[in-house]
């Protein structure tokens, strides 16, 4: 008898649940008849500010084309989650290297974001057009601005030297235009192209130029990257101190004679070949040959072994705006 009562109770409860579910489902079907949900998350468009700042100059975004060009890039960076997050992590390691060089060469600090959009701050970056390194120099331009490029050494991958070369380029470009935005656009298109188009299109503002899509987007990508780096949390990037990539200290070793085997050289300093190449991407061969007829001195970075092991206690936060406490 008791079992019978239990069965009746269970059947009754189940019936109530089923009926309730059907009623709720029916209501939901009516409420969302014109708006069926296809995904489990929603994406909100990012708001566009009235203006942004670049190199101390206010760039107004009230004109339709200016607003929509910025809108495209800020939304692209916001929803390109993994790449944008990785760029912020890398910036903690590389901005401390880049910023002092920009400052020394009188280049506005905002140009560090040019390196961000060029390579995602990846020292090994190589494009389909054979532009290489964090600043993405093609061989011809790299050599013009003092970088050694051959089979065994490619200084486009040398962060400090490539940053110095980028500064020389940007200072030359600024002399042409007296405008940092135009100098930035020329980094993508070349000074000859920007100069000729300013003349041919009879305008004096690089933002007014009709250019190929890549160049037309270029400076707006810099502006959008800067906006997100100013406050990643605002755009949905929640990073903690321990998420950032730490600066790794290095010992600088001067070399003026041939190194026949870089693997053996690395072992002599207590690291392996991979670690040597990781901190000296500009070394492109297994050896480094220096002839008496062409004497040279190179500085090789040897990472401090203790810094090669992760510890959140060692991480110094370069910009507190990047993290949540």
Helix content: 40-55%
CATH topology of the largest domain: Lysozyme
Largest sheet geometry? 2 strands, antiparallel
Number of strands: 4
* Low-pLDDT residue spans: 27-33
By CATH reckoning, the class of the largest domain would read Mainly Alpha
Overall structural domain count: 2
Structural class: mainly alpha
Beta-strand content: 5-15%
pLDDT averaged over residues: 91
What does this structure look like?
Strand 1 and strand 2 (57-60) form a beta hairpin. It is built from 11 helices and 4 strands, in the order H-E-E-H-H-H-H-H-H-H-H-E-H-H-E. It is mostly helical and 325 residues long. The model is unreliable at 27-33 (pLDDT under 50). 47% of the residues lie in helices and 6% in strands. It has a two-stranded antiparallel sheet. The chain has a two-stranded antiparallel sheet with strand order 3-4. Helix 4 (112-119) packs across helix 9 (213-230).
Task: Give the arrangement of secondary structure elements.
Blueprint: H1 2-31, E1 51-54, E2 57-60, H2 64-79, H3 81-104, H4 112-119, H5 139-144, H6 159-177, H7 180-189, H8 191-200, H9 213-230, E3 250-255, H10 262-268, H11 273-278, E4 298-303
Antiparallel strand pairs: 1-2, 3-4
Summarize the structure.
The chain is 47% helix and 6% strand. It is mainly alpha-helical.
Q: What key phrases describe this protein's structure?
A:
325 residues; 2 domains; Lysozyme; mainly alpha; two-stranded antiparallel ribbon; globular
């Amino acid at each position: 008898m008791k079992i019978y009562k239990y069965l009746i109770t269970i059947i009754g409860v189940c019936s109530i649940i089923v009926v309730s579910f059907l009623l709720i489902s029916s209501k939901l079907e009516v409420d969302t008849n014109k708006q069926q949900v296809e995904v489990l998350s929603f994406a909100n468009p990012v708001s566009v500010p009235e203006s942004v700042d670049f190199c101390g100059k206010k760039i107004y975004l009230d004109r339709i084309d200016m607003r929509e060009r910025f809108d495209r890039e800020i939304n692209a960076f916001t929803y390109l989650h993994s790449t944008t997050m990785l760029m912020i992590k890398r910036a903690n390691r590389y901005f401390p290297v880049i910023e002092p060089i920009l400052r020394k060469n009188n280049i506005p600090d905002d140009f560090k974001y040019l390196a961000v959009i060029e390579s995602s701050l990846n020292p090994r970056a190589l494009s389909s057009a054979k532009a290489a390194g964090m600043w993405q120099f093609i061989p011809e331009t790299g050599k013009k601005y003092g970088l050694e490029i051959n089979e065994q050494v490619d200084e486009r991958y040398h962060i400090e030297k490539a940053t110095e070369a980028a500064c020389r380029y940007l200072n030359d470009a600024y002399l042409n235009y007296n405008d940092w935005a135009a100098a930035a656009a020329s980094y993508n298109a070349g000074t000859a192209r920007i100069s000729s188009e300013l003349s041919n299109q009879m305008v004096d503002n690089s933002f007014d130029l009709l250019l190929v899509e890549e160049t037309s987007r270029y400076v707006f990508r810099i502006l959008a990257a800067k906006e997100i780096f100013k406050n990643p949390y605002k755009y949905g990037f929640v990073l903690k101190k321990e998420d950032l990539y730490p600066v790794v200290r290095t010992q600088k070793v001067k070399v003026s004679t041939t190194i026949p085997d870089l693997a053996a050289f690395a072992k002599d300093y207590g690291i392996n070949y991979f670690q040597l190449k990781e901190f000296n991407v500009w070394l492109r061969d297994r050896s480094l040959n220096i002839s008496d007829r062409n004497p040279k001195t190179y500085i090789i970075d040897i990472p401090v072994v203790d810094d090669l092991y992760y510890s959140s206690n060692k991480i110094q936060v370069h910009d507190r705006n990047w993290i949540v406490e």
